[in-house]
């Protein structure tokens, strides 16, 4: 096996230019590493609909100096309003906290900010580069066009349903399973909504808020993007797509029929959606491992989730930022001779394992939290729904605990407010300290 040439920066290869892959690229490049991103698409198109950037992701973006660019098109959310499906009655309103910024943005704008920053930092983005296999011990990546590339580390950020990196790493077919829900996603313009000529719709459009309607088996999420000139609507319902489908064009009539009888403001908005995509929502049993040799997974490739906490991309952002930071610190140790070239492969695999260890618990909690929210949001009318609505009506979203994760503020603080990069830094520090103590070399702190 080849040893690292310490005069050259670490070569990081990232499979997939999604949100997680690009944040990993940016974080690694800021550490002075050489980064190449392999993206199977022939071009990066401005696709997708709205996406929320919750405070945990916003904190990471701030640490990468990306918030000013994000703010150019994003809207900072002042509150999250939760409404009853039938009549739009407000069940609760959760104000955004000053120390925890929450944004909504068009995914294409978010992606563009990440892409521009990656390029500015010298990251090489190779399009039309579909990865078909990986050699885990030596970091060789095989592309569909039969070319090969070699990295010191390879990161699999190739998404959820058909992640090649995940399947190769696990050595078997590994598709996430269907959750039983699907999402319709659509965006439309302010002009389209103004044409409805309805003061309640206009009121809704003015608010820098995320509005969620809860109903039996279904819920809907609405918020502004692109400085309030466009709006995003996500409608969630039981899945009726064939197995194996991920995204297809939606049937507008079916979508309208599904939400017939809901709050008239919502049904009016639904009536002006010109086209919509249907997404099958998937998740995965916890994977036994996310790492092998010089390779690690991130984002949906290892922990796809129901989008019921707006955390899928946010967790991928956390993964990517931490991986970049860890690889930078590891490279320093190799460069300054604290780790000998002979132990290079072993130290890479140990640092990737450390990443997996600290991320698994948090991302598993997130997947479970989203499942718990599904129950909470979709309660059928009856005693439990009435109890939920009563608890929401008196909730202040500050310090209360609750049997529902959604209303449990300890759970929420852990999810949204823990400084994960700093915590990860401490974990790396203590890993290195225990390593040097084992070797009798004293306690050398690096972070
Ligand atoms: C309805 C809905 C609403 C959502 N809302 C939110 C939200 O509000 N907030 C939030 O944080 N998350 C949200 N999410 C989740 C979020 O979209 C995903 O979790 C996130 O995009 C995952 O990022 P990723 O980088 O892991 O993968 P992806 O963004 O899927 O990127 C994977 C990339 O890898 C490329 N690729 C795949 N295979 C290969 C290959 N073999 N070789 C090379 N390249 C390859 C793909 O082309 C793609 O560019 C939502 C999801 C849905 C469905």
Automatic annotation (TrEMBL):
Keyword Cytoplasm: no
Pfam families in alphabetical order: FAD_binding_3 (PF01494)
Gene3D superfamilies, per database record: FAD/NAD(P)-binding domain
Keywords assigned: FAD, Flavoprotein, Monooxygenase, Oxidoreductase
Coiled coil region boundaries: none
UniProt-recorded Gene Ontology molecular function terms: FAD binding; monooxygenase activity
InterPro entries: FAD-bd, FAD-dep_Monooxygenase_BioMet, FAD/NAD-bd_sf
FAD-binding domain boundaries: 11-329
Domain of life, per lineage: Eukaryota
Family in the record: Belongs to the paxM FAD-dependent monooxygenase family.
Protein name: FAD/NAD(P)-binding domain-containing protein
Organism: Eremomyces bilateralis CBS 781.70
């Amino acid at each position: 096996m080849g040893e690292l040439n310490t005069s050259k920066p670490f070569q990081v290869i990232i499979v997939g230019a999604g949100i997680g892959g690009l944040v990993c690229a940016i974080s690694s490049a800021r550490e002075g590493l050489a980064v190449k991103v392999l993206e199977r698409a022939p071009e990066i198109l401005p696709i997708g609909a709205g996406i929320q950037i919750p405070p945990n992701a916003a904190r990471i973006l701030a640490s990468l100096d990306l918030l000013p660019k994000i703010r150019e098109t994003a809207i900072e959310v002042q509150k999250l309003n939760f409404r009853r499906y039938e009549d739009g009655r407000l069940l609760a309103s959760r104000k955004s906290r000053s120390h925890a910024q929450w944004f909504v943005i068009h995914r294409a704008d978010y992606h563009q900010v990440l892409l521009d920053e990656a390029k500015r930092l010298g990251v090489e983005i190779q399009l039309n580069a579909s990865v078909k296999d990986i050699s885990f011990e030596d970091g060789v990546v095989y592309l569909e066009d039969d070319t090969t590339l070699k990295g010191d580390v390879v990161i699999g950020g190739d998404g959820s349903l058909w992640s090649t990196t995940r399947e190769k790493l696990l050595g078997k077919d590994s598709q996430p399973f269907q959750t039983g829900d699907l999402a319709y996603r659509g965006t439309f313009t302010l002009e389209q909504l103004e044409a409805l000529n309805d003061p309640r719709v206009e009121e809704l459009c003015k608010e820098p808020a995320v509005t969620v309607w809860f109903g039996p088996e279904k819920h809907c999420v609405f918020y502004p993007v692109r400085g309030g000139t466009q709006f995003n609507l996500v409608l969630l319902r039981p899945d009726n797509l064939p197995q194996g489908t991920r995204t297809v064009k939606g049937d507008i009539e079916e979508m309208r029929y599904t939400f017939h009888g809901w709050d008239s403001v919502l049904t009016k908005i639904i009536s002006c959606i010109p086209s919509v995509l249907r997404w099958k929502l998937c998740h995965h049993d916890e994977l036994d491992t996310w790492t092998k040799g010089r390779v690690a997974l991130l984002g949906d490739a290892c922990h796809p989730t129901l989008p019921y906490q707006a955390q899928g991309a946010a967790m991928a952002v956390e993964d990517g930022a931490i991986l970049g930071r860890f690889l930078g610190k590891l490279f320093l140790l190799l460069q300054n001779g604290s780790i000998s070239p002979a132990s290079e492969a072993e130290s890479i695999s140990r640092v990737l394992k450390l990443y997996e260890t600290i991320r698994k618990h948090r991302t598993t909690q997130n997947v479970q939290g989203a499942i718990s929210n599904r129950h909470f949001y979709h309660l059928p009318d009856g005693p439990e729904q009435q109890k939920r609505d009563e608890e929401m009506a008196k909730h202040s979203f500050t310090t209360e605990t609750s049997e529902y994760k959604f209303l449990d503020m300890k759970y929420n603080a852990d999810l949204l407010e823990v400084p994960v990069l700093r915590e990860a830094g401490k974990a790396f520090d203590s890993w290195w300290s225990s390593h040097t103590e084992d070797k009798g070399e004293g306690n050398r702190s690096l972070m």
